[in-house]
Structure formats: C-alpha cells, structure tokens
Design goal:
By secondary structure, this protein is of the alpha+beta class. It is 31% helix and 43% strand. The chain is built from four helices and six strands; from the N terminus they run ααββαββββα. Strand 1 (24-31) and strand 2 (37-39) form a beta hairpin.
Length: 135
C-alpha cells in the first residue's frame, strides 16, 4: 500500500499531475487543508492546476506510515515552497519562499488512493509569506 503513496509523492515532486491522477480512484475524496472536500479526479486535477499556478513546491524528508490491514497510510514531510501568484483571500504573492512541515492521510482501495487529507499550519504559512523580507 505504501507503494502507491510513494508513487503519488514522486509524481508530485516531478510536477506530474497525470502521474498523481493515476494513483487515485475515480471517486477520490480530496480533503484540502482549511477547505472543502472535492470529489473525483476532475476536481483533483483542477485543484492541482490552481496550485501549480500559485505555488511551486517540493517535498522532502517524506516518511510514509502504512496500515495495510486497515487500508490506510499517512505521511509526514517538509514542504519547500515559493508563492508565485496571489491566491484568493491570502496575502499578496511576491515570490516569497516558505518552509512547512505537513502531513497527509490516505485511504487506499484496491491499490489506488481513494481519500487524500492534507494538513499544515496555515497561520505559520501566512506569517512566513507576510514577512517583509519575503523569507
């Protein structure tokens, strides 16, 4: 089960949306940090396109935890990002860099991810991109 999660993160880091989609079930439930649940691959793909417009991110120090008997997995990682374009309701983008720890939780059904839930500290991110030095 952790194999599909690792493929998902490899595709993320490669900017390969099609590769990420290949890891998902058709009816995937995508629980976005501080946002609504999106259902299905089309909604996931739209979200990824939006994210790629506003952010450039690379994940490091990825540690995947696996509970195959329960159909679940989790991962903790470090997000190295650049805020490229202003996102609705968030501070103005000026190319600020940020560094966050984050986690994702997965349900895996028949070898594909059927739920992705991502969590990170939004107030920490806002503080980082709001800093006057762009840190």
């Amino acid at each position: 089960m952790s194999h599909v999660v690792k493929r998902y993160f490899d595709a993320f880091n490669a900017g390969d949306i099609a590769g990420m989609l290949d890891c998902l079930t058709e009816d995937v439930a995508h629980h976005v940090n501080e946002g609504d649940v999106r259902h299905g691959k089309a909604a996931f793909e739209s979200f990824c396109a939006h994210m790629n417009r506003c952010y450039r991110e690379n994940l490091t120090d990825i540690l995947v935890f696996d509970a195959p008997d329960q159909g679940r997995a989790a991962a903790e990682y470090v997000v190295h990002g650049t805020y490229l374009a202003t996102d609705d309701g968030l501070p103005d983008a000026r190319g600020q860099n940020y560094l966050l720890t984050a986690g994702s939780f997965f349900d895996v059904t028949e070898g594909r991810i059927s739920r992705v839930t991502t969590r990170y500290n939004l107030s920490d991110w806002i503080a980082q991109v709001s800093a006057t030095d762009g840190a």
